[in-house]
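Need tokens for this chain, all 83 residues.
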Amino acid sequence: MKDALYQVVNQVVQNGKMPTSWEGALTTLIPKKVGEEKILASIRPICLMNTAAKIVTSVWCQTTLQKPRATVSFRGLAGGFPA
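Here are the structure tokens for all 83 residues:
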């Protein structure tokens, strides 16, 4: 399974197109307590998506969040950042 997912991810990176089964998600609202379905503050959204897409997007998010922290420098930029 890991190898198959790896191959699909490589194809996505090379072609720039995700499989169509990864493109959608089903979002539904679930009340926190029974009887409070009409109270907006008591409703939480649940998003259901393809498991492979969930794994890949999670890895991509973690990777993109880590890289900028390690490589971005604010030296010389205007806007309140000290040089």
